[in-house]
Structure formats: C-alpha cells, structure tokens
Write a structure and sequence with these properties.
The protein contains 21 helices and 4 strands. The protein is an all-alpha fold. Strand 2 and strand 3 form a beta hairpin. The longest helix has 29 residues. The radius of gyration is 23 Å and the shape is globular. The termini are far apart.
Length: about 475
C-alpha cells in the first residue's frame, strides 16, 4: 500500500512567502545579536564613513510584533521613489505600445537581423555593460526592460533572455567597475589609492565576464528558440502569447504618427542620459521625463486625453505585484536598522576575516562583503561602511589595499543580481513578470562561474601584491 502513495512534489512558495521568510529571519537576528554601532564622521571627500576603531555596544533595541508589522509600510515608503518610478515607466510605455510604434520599429530591427539575431545578445550585453562600468547603471536600466523583452520575443527567445540582456548586461559592467565612481571610485578614495588605479586588470576582468556571460546567454537563447518548451518561463510565454507579438511576415511600415512617437522616445532617452551624466539627475528627474514622454507620445499617436489616461492606468495595473515586491523586500533592512545590528554584523565578520590564514584573507573579505551587501544593498553605502574597516585590516594582515578594494568590488558587485534586497533586481523581475525562483534557476550556474573567476582574480591579486599599494 505504501508503494502506491505518491510523493508530493515540492512547489516553490509564492515570492511574497519567500520574502516573508527573509523578514522573519531579520526579525530573529534583532533578538540574538547585540545592538552596536560605529561612530561616523565626514571625510575629506564629504562622505560619511565609519571610524574603524570606534565600535561599541549600545543599549539593546528590542523590537516587538507591531514593529515587525510597521516595518512593512516603512519599507514601502523608503522605496517610494523607485516604486513610483516603475509605475511611471510602465504606464508611459503602455501608452507608447498602444500606438503600435514599438511593435513596428522592433519588428523592422528583428527582420533586418534575421539569421544573425543571436548576436544581438553580446551586442546588448556590451552596450549595457558600458553603462554599468562607467556610471553604475542600475535603476536607470529599468526603462529598457520592456523594450528588450519585445525584441527578444521577436527573435523567438523569451522574457528571461530579454530582461537579462539589460539587467545582467549592466551587472557585468558594474562588477568589473573599471570606471565606476560609485563603488570602485569611492572605495579607492577611502583606501587612499589613486582613483581608477589597476584599470588594466579591471578591463581584462570586464572582457572575461562579457565573454562568459555572452556564451551562457546565447546557449540558453538558442535552446529556447529551437524548443520553446525549454524556456524557464514557458508558462509566462504561453500566457502572454499574442500580447505585443510581432508578425515579421506581414510587417507594416511606420506611419507618420509612429515616426513622431519614435522621435519622442529617442529625444526622451537622450535627455535622460544627458541629465544623468551632466546635471546630476536621478529618479525624480527621470520620472518627470517619462511622464512627459507618455503624454506627448499619446497626443502624437492620435490619442485623446481620456485614452492616454486609460492606457497609463492599464500599464500600472500590470506592475502592482512587482512594485509591492520592491517595497516589501526592504522590510528586513528596516528591521535590522531599527534593531541596530547591522554594524554588529560588520564588526563580527571583520573579526572572522582577521582570523583567516593570509592566503585566504582576500577571499574571506569577498565573502564578508557579499554577506554585508544583503543588508546594505548600495555600493556607495557599503564602501562607506566597510572600507574604513577593511583597509587597516588589509595593512595588518599583509595584503595590499588594492586587493581589499577588489574583494569589496567582487563581494558587492556579484551579489547585486541575486539578493532579493536589491531594488533593481526585484523591479526588473516585476516588469518582466518573472518569478524570483525561476530567475535563480537561470542565473545560479552563471553566478557560480562568476564567483570562480572572482576567486581566481583575488588569488592573482594576493600572489602579485597588486598595487600601487
């Protein structure tokens, strides 16, 4: 009789359940870890950094169940600018999509690349990696996710391929960081190293990451193209079949109105890029530009005010699930901040690194930075928190400061695309309507390869005493 009993197949919990587990774990940590903090001060560059010798315990901050519940809306409020940025992007692009402009324009690109479409993957990875390597592209890339997904589907690929061409492309550049002022630049400044020193090694690292990532994604895309059931998001592709699909055999030409809409999109993106690079723009300014893009595109496309509003709301309705994820994922960070245990985690992990044998020190630093990035998902914030501690630790343990920067860079960069506390990751998944579990299944083999490359890099840095010091 027992032989007739079928084993129940494991079903991955809902994404919100997974986040709930992380939140409860964070709540638990506030009870088992002592509350502590470092003193902070403004350095010569005007950045608030920690005093490495100042860690001290403070009165225990006990949280209760109501604090746990209150952390949920607090996380949503803390992420409000990103959440509404996503709403605005999706709403504005829904207006554009309703005009038919993107379908025709992307269809023409797809038809022109027919037979060579696989090379769109390394090309787009290269383009977005430039953004990641030079100005730390993160939330700025979200606007391209819907477009990349449409392009990928027109080639016979899936939403995973489209989303990752943007998300992983920017990630590859960010983790190589050969001219990124927000992680490498700040970390080297705190370490008193020449800014962008060892750029040659970082450029080689960038090329290696690009080649490996391109191979991995091209291999997956070819498999999906030859057999759509091999897609990790096949259920999503079936569900959205026909939504925004492009018939390359009966492709219309761009109408005068659609050309006008296309010009509005190009002008908006050009203005946003100029603002980001020259005017210190960020989320709010970009949001304003996409509000304008949606409205102007609607009128140019022949819509009246009511139709524009209807399409905008229609787009926003599709992204509520993803937007809530972005805010809820921050709940754990809120709890750890209120429990005053983040600095305690940093102090304890630094102590563990100091106990490692010299040849493992750099790898240990990378692991520490990886763990800390779960709690402090900001390259700038993490550099300000950890580098004042890791730099003197590197001096004591006999490894170069440049090696410590590389360890920070790898720990921070590689984990950005895997931790649910990353707003950009969760927002991208929301835009693509891809489950976190399916994304992890896609990424994990590549992520492990990246980590192997990072370990080899740190071994090289340790053996050669990479400098200048």
């Amino acid at each position: 009789m027992e032989g007739n009993i079928k084993k129940k197949k494991f079903v991955m919990p809902h994404t919100y359940v997974i986040l709930g587990i992380f939140i409860l774990f964070g709540f638990f940590l506030t009870f088992v870890l002592p509350s502590g903090e470092y003193d902070r001060y403004l350095n010569d560059a005007g950045l608030t950094v920690v005093n490495a010798e100042s860690f001290h315990l403070v009165e225990k901050a006990y949280l209760n169940v109501f604090d746990l519940l209150l952390a949920v809306p607090t996380g949503l409020i803390n992420m409000a600018s990103i959440i509404f940025f996503i709403f605005i992007i999706v709403g504005a692009f829904q207006i554009v999509i309703a005009t038919g402009t993107l379908n025709v324009a992307i269809g023409q690109v797809a038809r022109a690349m027919r037979g060579k479409e696989i090379w769109s993957i390394p090309l787009l990875l290269f383009v977005f990696s430039i953004g990641g390597a030079t100005f730390g592209m993160s939330q700025e890339g979200l606007v391209f996710v819907p477009i990349a997904i449409m392009l990928a589907r027109s080639f016979g690929y899936d939403a995973m391929t489209g989303m990752c061409m943007v998300l992983i492309g920017a990630q590859v550049g960010f983790q190589a960081g050969w001219m990124n002022p927000f992680n490498v630049g700040i970390a080297q400044g705190i370490a008193e190293l020449p800014i962008y020193s060892a750029i040659g090694v970082r450029l080689v690292l960038w090329i290696v990451f690009l080649v490996v990532t391109s191979w991995y994604m091209m291999r997956y895309a070819r498999r999906v193209q030859s057999d759509p059931t091999k897609s990790l998001v096949h259920d999503l592709e079936v569900e959205q079949a026909g939504q925004g699909s492009i018939d390359l055999e009966n492709l219309e030409k761009l109408s005068g109105r659609q050309i006008g809409v296309l010009l509005v999109i190009v002008a908006t993106l050009a203005t946003v890029i100029y603002g980001l690079t020259n005017l210190d723009w960020f989320i709010n300014e970009m949001s304003a530009m996409f509000v304008a893009m949606g409205i102007i595109s609607g009128f140019v496309g022949g819509f009246g005010p009511s139709r524009i509003c209807e399409e905008f709301v229609k787009g926003c309705e599709t992204i509520v699930y993803g937007c809530l994820i972005v805010g809820i994922a921050q709940t754990m960070v809120v709890l750890l901040q209120q429990g005053m245990v983040i600095d305690t985690v940093v102090y304890d992990l630094a102590g563990l690194v100091s106990a490692l044998p010299p040849f493992l020190t750099a790898i240990g630093m990378m692991l520490v930075q990886t763990i800390i990035n779960f709690f402090v998902n900001s390259g700038t914030g993490q550099a300000a928190l950890t580098m004042p501690i890791m730099v003197p630790l590197a001096d004591i343990l006999g490894i170069t400061r440049q090696t410590a920067v590389f360890a920070f860079q790898m720990g921070d960069g590689l984990s950005n695309c895997i931790f649910p506390t990353s707003p950009t990751l969760m927002a991208s998944l929301g835009l693509a309507k891809i489950g976190y579990d399916k994304y992890l299944k896609f990424l994990m083999p590549l992520w492990l390869i990246w980590n192997l490359i990072a370990v080899l890099l740190l071994v090289y840095c340790t053996m050669t005493n990479i400098g200048p010091f």
